[in-house]
Write a structure and sequence with these properties.
7-stranded antiparallel β-sheet
Length: 405
């Protein structure tokens, strides 16, 4: 059984203890100590990291009453030897800020709406709370944040202690019912929130610094909040403030005028895009007419157009081919495109009885391609650009053999 020193003091950064067992967990060496300051993954909070005798602790797990410290290499000492443990304080204090902040945030949700916290996860970049609510507005989020941060600014004491009697649990009026039996650890934010928890916490709410809800979304019938506390909130504010200053500078407006400036830019962009689409359509119409004019009709009135496009992307060529076959004329188009490899588009007017899909399947071998489509319009893309000319020549020579009759 490992005595968990972090229960009584989350601020210890170094501690002496004895090695009880040397074991292996999934082919990884590990130690069990008689006492530990390392927190194991539990209750939504990740494990601590640090060192035991200058060997990194890469993971910490619970196994019954034991705390397992997993190492990247074998410790050469013997059982019952004394070792010095050192935790990664930056990681520990970050977890303390996030977890204590979660208690206050959950307490605020309960105080304002009587909403229960369903689950909590402390991640590397942000934390999440799943709450029993179907929707949230920005104004409601602001209200929650104000209530939570008010408790932080009041710097209320945060205490932890153990109780064993059911009568004591009832007297405490916990935020969430406890089903466990035996000794229960309680974390109390003075005159605000009382809940059962085995995690590491700050001594006072002021150490949390700040709580910021960054986003929220529906998760089934519930809502998931993403939030950050303490140094994480400061870092988030810092880069966002720097970004706002940079954007304000580029747009030569005050930060308070950014919304209006961006809306103006977006409106201008919409107008420019509208004009650009108009120009593109006119230019595409011109190109289509030029392609038709450059090809004389055969005796049966059929025009066979073939071309490899080197300076257009695939969507542009696809649009040109679509326009060509939509002219309700007797038109066959065999187009190649050099765009991230070699691509082919074979198409014919809908009144013609030729199977472009089968023809593409045969021609795509020259470009080592893969594609599909319909009888009148098919395409394929491959990595062998140098095979484009062969693919199109094959189509020009053999299209008569690919009928739908």
């Amino acid at each position: 059984m490992t005595e968990r020193i972090y229960y009584r003091d989350s601020y210890l950064k170094e501690y002496k203890s004895k090695v009880v067992k040397k074991i292996e967990i999934k082919n990884r060496p590990a130690l069990v100590l008689d006492q530990t300051i390392f927190y194991p993954t539990s209750g939504g909070q990740p494990y601590d990291q640090g060192f035991i005798q200058n060997i990194p602790v890469v993971e910490v797990l619970e196994e019954g009453e034991d705390v397992i410290h997993i190492l990247p290499q074998e410790w050469e000492g013997k059982e019952q030897e004394e070792v010095i443990s050192q935790i990664d304080w930056k990681r520990r204090f970050d977890h303390m800020q996030q977890h204590s902040g979660q208690h206050i945030l959950s307490g605020a949700l309960m105080k304002i709406w009587g909403i229960e916290t369903l689950s909590f996860h402390l991640g590397e970049k942000y934390c999440t709370l799943d709450i029993n609510k179907t929707n949230l507005t920005s104004e409601e989020i602001k209200n929650i944040e104000f209530k939570a941060n008010k408790i932080i600014f009041e710097n209320r004491p945060i205490e932890s202690y153990f109780i064993e009697q059911k009568e004591e649990l009832k007297r405490l009026n916990l935020r969430k019912e406890v089903k466990r039996k035996g000794k229960i650890r309680i974390v109390e934010v003075k005159d605000f929130d009382i809940s059962a928890c085995g995690g590491t916490h700050c001594r006072a709410s002021g150490e949390i610094g700040l709580i910021k809800i960054t986003r929220w979304e529906k998760k089934g019938e519930n809502i998931r909040l993403e939030f950050i506390c303490g140094y994480r909130a400061w870092e988030d504010y810092f880069w966002k403030n720097e970004m706002i200053k940079m954007i304000s500078g580029k747009l030569t407006v005050k930060d308070t005028e950014l919304t209006e400036a961006i809306e103006r830019l977006m409106e201008e962009r919409r107008e420019i895009n509208k004009e650009l689409r108009g120009f593109k359509e006119k230019w595409q119409e011109y190109e289509v007419n030029q392609l038709i004019a450059q090809v004389s009709p055969r005796e049966d009135g059929l025009r066979v157009i073939k071309k490899i496009f080197k300076e257009k992307n695939f969507p542009e060529v696809r649009g040109i081919v679509q326009r060509l076959v939509n002219l309700n004329k007797k038109i066959l188009v065999f187009a190649g495109v050099i765009d991230n490899g070699g691509k082919i588009i074979f198409a014919c007017s809908k009144n013609l009885n030729y199977d472009m899909k089968r023809l593409v399947k045969e021609a795509e071998k020259f470009i080592e391609g893969h594609g599909g489509g319909s009888i009148n319009f098919a395409q394929s893309g491959g990595k062998k650009v140098e095979g484009l000319a062969q693919a199109i020549d094959f189509a020009v020579r053999n299209w008569k053999n690919f009928t739908t009759d």
